[in-house]
Amino acid sequence: MRGSIAAPDEKPRQQISTLKRFLRYLRPYRKEVPTALILVSIGAATQAIGPFLIGWSIDNLIVRGNLPGLLMMLGILALIYLLGVQAIRGQILRVGWIMQRLLAQLRQDIFVKIQSLPLSFFDQSEAGDLMSRLLNDVSTVNQAFGQTIAQMLGNLFSIVGIIIAMLFINLQLGLLSNLVVPLMIFTTGLFARWARTRFRVTRQTIGELSTKLEEDIGSVREAQAFNRVSLNIEEFEQLNAANRDANIEAVAITAAFLPSIDFLNTLATAGVLAYGGYLAVTGAATVGVVTAFLLYVQQFFRPIQILSQFYTQAQSAFAGLERIFLLLDEPSKLQDAIDAIEMPPMRGEVTFETVTFGYTSSQCVLNGVSLHAKPGQMIALVGPTGAGKSTIINLILRFYDVTGGAVKIDGIDVRTVTQASLRRPIGIVLQDTVLFSGSVAENIAFGNPHATQADIEAAAQVANVHEFITTLPQGYATLLGERGASLSQGQRQLMSIARAVLIDPRILILDEATSSIDTRTEALVQSAIARLLEGRTSFVIAHRLSTVTQADQVLVVQQGEIVEHGTHAELVAQQGVYANLYALQLGQRSEVNVMTNL
User: Fold this and answer.
1) Number of domain units in the chain
2) Same domain, 143 and 223
3) Where does a domain end: 266, 291, 326?
4) Span 532-545, mean pLDDT?
5) Are 361 and 228 in the same domain?
6) Cα distance between residue 532 and residue 529, in whole Å
């Protein structure tokens, strides 16, 4: 799958390392851990002492007909088990409280990491797979650790207490009862290795399934328009089947594992009953001791069964943790320099000094590009698709770092300032406007969330969208659907302009902001843009050359180089590439002539 970060085939030692890293999230709650462990110890102790007292009561109270003593012992047992119930309840609440906060922090770290990764990462990654890590993988970890970790700790302590009690009561029976433990450990390890491989596949396939689902839901309109619905269904069915088969294989391992543990449990019980019965008949052990051992064997294997089942389930969680930590370890190539400074108040002078750049080492997108924009100038970027126009914009914002040369703003290399301070005074109005599932006011204030209502309305008036907003059912409080689907392209574009107005940028970037809208709306957008451009340095990517005739500089970009530059009038007079493009759009030259010049 394109862009997925596949988890390596980890060995047990690496898995232990993964677990240690996960447990580091316990550090903020280390003061809470001792309380939880004390409650776990109390719960384990109450379970371990019960069979001993029952066996003692058989030999010393029931056999001797001591009814008052038996009634007193029943009361003591009731109090002990009541204490155990409360301790177990407390440990589940306490450990659950810790684990849910731990998992919430893990989700937060994943989200922060995703937000901080450079655009080059997202060029090769898919949103569905990243969402799967944040939601599905963390949910799997939650199911394995968040909901059962308290029970697992209690069972682990119970096993230790039961082993000590059995060896203390009768060493021979205690050793016999534990003969199956090595077999159980071997069986658990064997099944765990099989399960780890299968569950890793389930995590990968659910990531692919999430990616497919996210893509197809977001492109339902295109799928129906291009009659691709049946093909999309078929592709989804294949991915769904792959995920189904992976889960079936994992379930099959679990289905074979649990009966194996049950068989060992039965074997140990039979051994205790046979040898314990022999000891009782020969007088080497009392009936109470044998009874206590039978109870201990049942108690001993019940937590082992739970632990074994947890261990198998944990393989899915480990597979999820592997994917999560691979994402968290993804290097952030565009980190601020250690000595990065805050960008001083920006004037808007932009300089490219022989800039070269490629998205990959084998792909050169810009080759020796130099340009100089004075504060307040409008710079138009024109040229064929794929020429490098958007790349120039991306380098101004430092979404990527140059391969060679330098990009400077007000004489300062953009790599020497913090990214936040660099981008704060830069506004963007893109061709594909992105709106969010919030209110109109929240969308306009996206870049300035502390703006007042008056500021928001003022920005909307500059963008020629205030009157439209007032016609909405709740005005500025009207909630928009996902990506503003209920609005027209022009309305979304005007809101995008209002968003840019509100941050009062010193540098403005416009990427074909008037495409795909009707003539009347285009007039509103052009009027709003004209107001927005006043006194600001601007870079305008335009395919309709009629929109850039007033630019201070027109840069013709072709195959990663600036092949022509000048004003509109100067370039038309040169009768070069720009003149041919302009003539074509006016219908004065044939497309053949233009393509020949390109």
Assistant:
1) 3
2) yes
3) 326
4) 83
5) no
6) 5
Say which CATH number the domain at 576 has: 3.40.50.300
Indicate whether 87 pLDDT > 80: yes
Q: CA 69 to CA 71: how far, in whole Å?
A: 5
Contacts for 483 with CB less than 8 Å, ≥ 6 apart: 434, 435, 436
363 and 298 belong to one structural domain:
no
CATH label of the domain that carries residue 267:
1.20.1560.10
Q: Would residue 519 count as lying in a domain?
A: no
| Structural domain contains residue 139 | yes
CB atoms within 10 A of CB 192: 21
Cβ–Cβ under 8 Å, residues 320 and 136? yes
527 within a domain of the structure (yes/no): no
pLDDT at 352: 94
Sheet holding 553-558, edge to edge: 426-429, 507-511, 537-541, 378-382, 553-558, 561-566
pLDDT digits (tens, 9 = 90+) for 32-56: 878 888 888 888 788 778 888 888 8
**pLDDT at residue 597 greater than cutoff 50:** no
Same domain flag for 405 and 433: no
Contact 257, 194 (CB under 8 A): no
For residue 411, the model assigns a pLDDT of: 92
Q: Are residues 406 and 440 in the same domain?
A: no
**Structure tokens that stand for 155 in this block:** 């069972």
Contact partners, residue 452, CB within 8 Å, separation at least 6: none
* Residue 463 included in any domain: yes
The number of residues making up the chain comes to 598
Do both 439 and 391 map to the same domain?
Answer: no
Going by C-alpha positions, the residue among 133, 122, 111 that lies closest to residue 324 is: 133
Mean of pLDDT values over 562-578: 89
Residue 566 has phi, psi (to 5 degrees) of 155, -170
Per-residue confidence at 58, pLDDT binned at 50, 70, 90?
A: confident
Residue finishing a domain among 291, 326, 361: 326
CB < 8 Å & 24+ apart, contacts of 85-94: 87/39, 87/40, 87/42, 87/43, 87/46, 88/39, 88/43, 88/154, 90/39, 91/36, 91/39, 91/40, 91/43, 91/150, 91/153, 91/154, 92/150, 92/151, 94/32, 94/35, 94/36, 94/39, 94/150
pLDDT score recorded for residue 114: 80
Model pLDDT, residue 594: 39
State the Cα–Cα distance between residues 350 and 370, nearest whole angstrom: 10
Residues 162 and 174 reside in one and the same domain: yes
pTM, entire model: 0.64
Query: Coil, strand or helix: which one is 335?
Result: coil
**If you write DSSP's letter for every residue of 38-76 in order, what string do you get?**
HHHHHHHHHHHHHHHHHHHHIIIIITTT-HHHHHHHHHH
Average the pLDDT over 168-189 and give the result: 76
For 476, the domain range is 428-504
Task: Please choose, from the candidates 312, 1, 309, 316, the residue with its C-alpha nearest in 3D space to the C-alpha of residue 137.
Answer: 316
Supply the pLDDT for residue 591. Answer: 42
For residues 498 and 364, state if they share a domain.
Answer: no
Write down the pLDDT at residue 484: 65
